Amino acid sequence: MTKVVSMSSWLTLVLLGLGSGVAEANSDKPNVIYILSDEIAYFEPGFMGGELIDTPNLDQMAAEGIVFRHLLSGAPACAPARATLMTGRHLGRTSMRDNQGDTPIRADEETIASILKREGYATGGFGKWGLGGRGSSGVPEKQGFDVFFGYYHQVHAHTFYPPYLIRNSEEVPLQGNDIVGFRRSGETYAHYEIHEAAMDFIREHAGERPFFAYLPYTPPHGPFAIPESDPAWAKYKDKPWPMDARLYAAMTTMLDRHVGEIRELLKEKGVAENTLIFFSGDNGADDRFADKENPRGLFSGNKDPHSDLEYRGGKGNLYQGALRVPFVAVWPGRIEPGSVSDFLGYFPDVLPTIAEVVGAETPSGVTGISFVPELIGVEAAGREQAQHDYLYWEFRRGRVVRQGNWRAVLPTRRGASWELYDVSKDPSESNNLAEVRPELLARLQALVEQAREPVRGGTWKNRELNERDRRAKFGRHDQET
Questions:
Q1: Would you list the domain boundaries of the chain?
Q2: How far apart are alpha carbons 367 and 89 in whole angstroms?
Q3: How far apart are CA 353 and CA 374, in angstroms?
Q4: How many degrees, rounded to 5, is the angle at CA 159 between CA 158 and CA 160?
Q5: Is 70 exceeded by the pLDDT of residue 1?
Q6: How confident is the model at residue 101 (pLDDT cuts 50, 70, 90)?
Q7: What fold does the segment set 7-391+455-479 form as a domain?
Q8: What is the pLDDT of residue 102?
């Protein structure tokens, strides 16, 4: 847990009558940046023990901030994870619970962006949305974003060389990317365009108006591609690894460089000390690039390279490996450098945390809890850290209830039975105690009914543009046939 920055700073905030002890006068409200990396795995960055991929900027961010070891994804796949993050609701209460990537959230749902916009923030999103395709109630400009630039349909994001990106539902052509079927080559690398738009947004608002920048960056998600001229490629192009593994590593290091560029820009604009930055992955790892020597993958995303600790499963199921993500935050002068937290939480907790930081009210229906005391210290926050009674996930047929160290798991596979694990003694979930502790399992199972409500999804006005975006990964000509 972090410690208070200073007693005098807390007393100053109390004298200002600011309740939570976090948000200062309106003009001094902190900027908030959330960088969500698509697929970066738990043990891959250097600050989590990874040794094969260079992440110096993320490592520096961790050294200057706080690493959350047990702040988990809200879902085992891209789109529903984003839904839990943006709305502060777990998977039993979200309007999106699967991974189609264009299923819309409802028009009346509160998001981090809509909350901050009411507080006077400029709100911008840059990257992969996945919470409602064009023509639906879920488009980001209806969800509190002044501007969103990138991909709306997540299948559209399955290329770094699409014929166009989207800004507030309007197409922005990308020069030289109109070759049918060429998903890994072209003239204009989409991520560069997205990152530069994010940097422009920060430049425009830094020091002028508090801003929220949501950066759901697609790297290092496949199909793996990076320009040969990118300096990150030079680090890995001659490694004795499969081509896709070299590309994946280079994309991760490129992403790390862009994190560093964002932090340098904040310093240049004089707002680094008034900006809270979060960085995380979006869902658990696949065992990518596995072989006989590396059965959990070349980069060991769910296996600690320095110990025997490993997490079972990965993306798409509901064991621990599906939900473990690297999670780090930095806020100079507020977060004690080099902190490590064992707070047990997940993505739904981000919305109420940010709301408390900026002095906004958390909407009704939110299932997350604020972890501000864990972030900046109990004394600075003015209260003790609350804890979850239980955490809940579901995905397709699967269900998970976690209460303390106990995880009750109904796997996603057809015909599966409930399993029970004490993850304090068995983090790899190899010893099923369902038959040994049936009374405990029954108690956890009963929480499922408490957690769930019927799905109430968003709506569509027209699916034509959404379908166009889905096909866009194959090139412009394919759109018109």
A1: 7-391+455-479
A2: 5
A3: 10
A4: 135
A5: no
A6: confident
A7: Alkaline Phosphatase, subunit A (3.40.720)
A8: 84
Beta-sheet strand order (sheet of 406-410): 391-395, 398-403, 406-410, 419-422
**Contacting residues for 468 by C-beta, under 8 A, at least 6 apart:** 134, 479
**Predicted TM-score (pTM) of this structure:** 0.94
Give the containing element (helix H, strand E) for 446: helix 438-451
Q: Which residue in this structure is represented by tokens 């990965």?
A: 314
pLDDT in tens, 281-334: 999 999 999 999 999 999 999 999 999 999 999 999 999 999 999 999 999 999
What contacts 233, CB < 8 A, 6 or more positions away? 226, 227, 247, 250
Residue 346 has pLDDT above 90, yes or no: yes
Distance CA 195, CA 179 (A): 23
On the question of pLDDT at 169 being above 80, the answer is yes
DSSP type of residue 81: H
List the one residue out of 329, 334, 350, 357 whose CA is nearest residue 119.
357
Cα 153 to Cα 138: distance, rounded to the nearest angstrom: 11
Reply yes or no on whether the pLDDT at 184 is more than 90. no
Contact at 8 Å (CB) between 296 and 303? yes
| pLDDT over 70, % of the chain | 93
* Residue 101 zone, left/alpha/beta (φ > 0; ψ -120 to 50; rest): left
Give 54's contacts (C-beta < 8 A, 6+ positions apart).
46, 235, 253, 256
Neighbours of 436 (CB within 10 A): 10
The mean per-residue pLDDT over the stretch 48-76 comes to 98
Q: Does the N-terminal peptide bond of residue 220 adopt cis geometry, omega within 30 degrees of 0?
A: yes
CB 117 within 8 A of CB 161: no
